[in-house]
């Protein structure tokens, strides 16, 4: 039977959203979708700032401990929301663009099964081998125990992170950006409020230190999973999910994984890059590591800032690809890439000139602050290319064309790995400049992949 089959108005609303993706003016439609994602962008950016602040109240040691775990946590979130989540968004949008809503509904179950598998791939290793992971990143006696405690607590919530992001991606693929944005905004509101209370022991809450920050993260995603699960299963998104007639299909797993597995290269390369730089910077001491961690936190913050535009690009490009409108898909991708680059570039130049606007919120230690300022001074001015690369990556997800993004990510890693290792002999400044050159490679190659004619019907 169909659970709470949606009324015709839900299906009609979903059809109208798809029509707008296929026929609406590109820039206004894209900006309208991105505006609907504004709560998500504000919430995720705000959570990154607030979490950095309340962890910073515990001292430089706590910031250094989190810096040891942060790359793996961010990699999981990028896999769940960006890579596999983007592939789910794309698969649903392409099915709807091709006029196949029943196929889109059936994709939901396949997506949730993939999400659970992805969660276990992070949760089990981190719970079993957390000590080995933080030691690999350069843990010291002063940072090891806190880093392990934080990792153990935060990765207990891996299933909720994956399911919440997967269900949000289903909703985005249908064009209902505001609903998914509101749900994920709720995640970060809970993370900021409950996380700060449990970390610092505010009001009636116990002071749990870094474990409190992890629990705020866990409970936020659990709440979003429950809300989005009900919203999708009840048919309010405009898809009729008949649980009694669901049939698992290799072709529908392939719809998601055929794009998502290539997309996984992005978070893997991003985290490999941060792992490499973290290992180099750790040689300079805990203060330098804490400062770089804050700089890298701003770099990662560019992802949620672009995410609102990027997920809109995935849905809009996906719908047009499904309908065979490839010229419109390309124009949409490039328009979104330039908008995202302008936003991140403006932020990067601002913090390069005035690093205190970012760093003074988190740290007062002079050595840590100087390391963070060096990162912003050398990498920040090249954030335009980071935004361009991230947005065109999301657009490529929508098109199901991941060849050039995969090549560009490999080239970026080569530039940062080779250049960063060689530059380490000349100090932190040269290492951070190599990171910026990696942004240039990423943005230019992704844009070239779209312009070169690789996006065509198969």
Characterise the protein shown here.
- The protein is mainly alpha-helical and 458 residues long.
- The protein has one domain.
- The protein has helices at residues 8-23, 26-36, 38-56, 60-97, 101-136, 144-154, 158-173, 177-200, 210-233, 250-263, 265-282, 286-322, 326-353, 356-359, 366-379, 383-399, 403-423, 428-451.
- The longest helix is centred in the first third of the chain and has 38 residues, at 60-97.
Measure the end-to-end span: 36 Å
Taken in chain order, the helices and strands follow as HHHHHHHHHHHHHHHHHH
Give the helix tally: 18
Radius of gyration: 21 Å
Query: Quick one: overall form?
Result: globular
Binned strand content: under 5%
Model regions low in confidence, pLDDT < 50 over at least 5 residues: 1-7
Q: How much helical structure, as a percent, in the residues?
A: over 70%
Number of domains: 1
Number of strands: 0
The largest sheet is: none
């Amino acid at each position: 039977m169909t659970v709470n089959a949606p009324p015709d108005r839900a299906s009609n609303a979903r059809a109208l959203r798809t029509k707008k993706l296929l026929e609406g003016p590109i820039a206004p439609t894209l900006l309208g979708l991105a505006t609907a994602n504004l709560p998500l962008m504000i919430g995720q950016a705000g959570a990154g700032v607030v979490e950095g602040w309340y962890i910073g109240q515990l001292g430089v040691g706590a910031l250094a401990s989190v810096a040891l775990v942060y790359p793996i946590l961010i990699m999981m979130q990028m896999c769940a929301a960006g890579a596999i989540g983007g592939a789910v968004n794309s698969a649903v949008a392409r099915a709807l663009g091709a006029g196949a809503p029943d196929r889109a509904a059936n994709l939901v179950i396949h997506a949730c099964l993939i999400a659970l598998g992805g969660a276990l791939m992070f949760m089990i290793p981190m719970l079993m081998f957390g000590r080995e992971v933080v030691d690999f990143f350069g843990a010291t006696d002063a940072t090891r125990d806190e880093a392990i405690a934080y990792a153990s607590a935060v990765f207990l919530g891996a299933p909720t992170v994956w399911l919440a992001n997967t269900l949000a991606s289903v909703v985005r693929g249908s064009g209902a950006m505001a609903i998914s944005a509101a749900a994920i905004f709720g995640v970060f509101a809970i993370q900021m409020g409950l996380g700060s209370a449990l970390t610092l022991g505010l009001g009636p809450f116990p002071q749990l230190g870094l474990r409190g920050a992890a629990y705020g993260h866990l409970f936020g995603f659990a709440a979003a999973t429950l809300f989005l699960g009900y919203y999708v299963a009840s048919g309010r998104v405009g898809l009729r999910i008949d649980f009694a007639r669901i049939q698992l299909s290799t072709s529908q797993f392939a719809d998601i994984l055929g794009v998502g597995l290539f997309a996984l290269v992005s978070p893997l390369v991003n985290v490999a890059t941060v792992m490499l730089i973290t290992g180099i910077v750790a040689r300079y001491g805990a203060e330098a590591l804490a400062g770089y961690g804050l700089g890298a936190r701003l770099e990662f913050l560019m992802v949620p800032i672009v995410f609102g535009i990027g997920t809109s690009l995935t849905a809009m490009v996906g719908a047009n690809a499904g309908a065979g409108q490839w010229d419109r898909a390309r124009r949409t991708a490039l328009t979104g890439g330039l908008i995202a680059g302008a936003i991140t570039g403006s932020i990067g130049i601002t913090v390069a000139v005035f690093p205190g606007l970012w760093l003074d919120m988190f740290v007062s230690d002079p050595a840590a602050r100087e390391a963070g300022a060096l990162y912003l001074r050398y990498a920040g001015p090249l954030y335009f290319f980071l935004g361009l690369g991230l947005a065109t990556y999301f657009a490529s997800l929508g098109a199901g064309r991941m060849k050039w993004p995969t090549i560009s990510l490999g080239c970026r890693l080569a530039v940062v790995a080779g250049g960063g290792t060689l530059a380490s002999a000349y100090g932190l400044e040269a290492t951070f400049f190599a990171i910026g050159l990696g942004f240039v490679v990423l943005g230019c190659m992704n844009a070239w992949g779209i312009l070169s004619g690789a996006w065509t019907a198969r």
